[in-house]
């Protein structure tokens, strides 16, 4: 039953994304940026998915430390991995967008730099997990790192903001630009689809993690005899 | 099944630090022990100092030390050196306890994890500061930088920035001490976390070596540095027991 729901959710996400590609293609080019602007329909939803996943990882990490229930640890690692994947998508689509508009692949503005630092932090989290064999220790240490990493996010954001005063103005959700209604609707659908996709991947990864744990405990049992 | 009463064991051993005075004494004992151990071998301090000077020399090939622009990023250079050298000292902080299972003994000792952490952090702090206080004049000579114009302000920035490196480094030193690739994992985890503190220290140091006071428009960086120190010290004290005991 659970698998069927997951499949359904995944297929629905793909259908929405595929439909939206046709809708977006028919939209007129944006006034100043032309068609390049349309990458925002994938760039922003990727961020939404990434930050939701990272937030879920923080919550489940705290829950693990409080309850010592390994289910929370499994959700934490699954959502962190998916979060890193979507952060990568966000960074890459942002870079592709920056090239034709700003003429550069990368700029050290507050959002980009904060995200890059965040990406590195969670990469450290995943590397740390690889380096620890013992499951309890791995889960505990990973949860601690996750909490430490999250404390840094606001400080990172504001300090980078003060450091790079010449950052480009926000191009979206700002008072200077206006987003047509039908564009907002498509954006909403895309965010929903991306979140659904992220949920499906997290769920699949979660199952893997559970099988892995079962396998490990069986192996330990076999060693005991 | 009848429960077997073992009050001595279940009444968690004197893990609670007791009164403030005895907690301070515990911290002091750990600090003294760590400093004594380090001063007998001097391995971490010597390695860190040699490393710091070596990086300073290497940087002189990357930039023209005599150029005026070098003064602009002198603060950045200096704190990269400090962060690198500091990691060498911090790596040893808990790794030193591994032979003869000293770490297990320390954790079993009647002292709270937070006090143990504080003692370790303060000992490393003294060592990292010592390395920095030697490296700073060397840096001044090599790069023609007048770092002593606002001497006490410089010391304040040094003290706060070093505490940031030490507190984050010590808690992750405890976390990575028993895992594979310890030497790689420590910088992998600490450097991205230290970004705001390093940025603040770099900015303030750059101001000072360029003759500006830290109370000027860049005072916001002082606030960043102080908030970073407070936040991470609090988080470390709260979480270190989990790291050490599980």
Question: How would you summarize the topology of this molecule?
Answer:
The complex is a heterodimer of chains A (225) and B (246).
Chain A (H helix, E strand, L loop, with lengths): L1 H25 L13 H28 L2 H33 L7 H22 L3 H29 L17 H44 L1
Chain B lengths: L6 H4 L9 H22 L1 H20 L5 H5 L1 H22 L6 H7 L4 H30 L8 H26 L5 H28 L9 H27 L1
Please give a structural write-up.
The complex is a heterodimer of chains A (225) and B (246). Chain A is mainly α and 225 residues long. Chain A has one domain (11-24, 34-224). Chain A is 80% helix and 0% strand. In chain A, helix 2 crosses helix 5, helix 2 (40-67) packs parallel to helix 6 and helix 3 runs parallel beside helix 5. Chain B has one domain (24-244). The model of chain B is unreliable at 1-15 (pLDDT under 50). Classes of the chains: A mainly alpha (225), B mainly alpha (246). At the A-B interface, helix 4 and helix 5 of A face helix 8, helix 9 and helix 10 of B.
Index terms:
heterodimer, A: 225 residues, mainly alpha, 80% helix, globular, B: 246 residues, disordered N terminus
Over all CA atoms, what is the radius of gyration of chain A? 20 Å
Largest sheet of chain B: none
Strand tally of chain A is 0
Strand content of chain A: under 5%
Mean pLDDT of chain B: 86
**CA-atom Rg of chain B in angstroms:** 20 Å
Q: What's the total helix number of chain A?
A: 6
Identify the overall geometry of chain B.
globular
